[in-house]
Write a structure and sequence with these properties.
Elements lengths: L17 E2 L8 E2 H4 L3 H19 L5 E4 L2 E4 L8
The structure holds zinc ion.
The site of zinc ion has 8 residues, from strand 2 and helix 1.
């Protein structure tokens, strides 16, 4: 079973809003993500990587709870 918890403070998604910007896309809450300059830098790095991956798929990006998601026009799919 997948744990829907902040990897850092262990609070779950009922208590805090979680985003997949921890190490290896693990879930982290905003508070923890911004708690130290190191975590903040890591969060920004992970976000940028996910955004880059999404942009490789489409030039239209939707921000979701799962991070940046490419919006793919079904007409573009072969
Ligand atoms: Zn946390």
């Amino acid at each position: 079973m997948v744990e829907i918890k902040c990897y850092c403070c262990n609070r779950d998604s009922e208590q805090v809003e979680l985003r997949p910007y921890g190490p290896n896309a693990s879930l982290i809450c905003f508070e923890c993500a911004m708690s130290t300059p190191e975590k903040e830098a890591e969060t920004e790095r992970n976000y940028a990587l996910q955004l880059e991956a999404a942009l490789a798929k489409s030039n239209i990006i939707m921000l979701s709870e799962a991070g940046p998601v490419p919006v793919i026009n079904k007409d573009d799919l072969n």
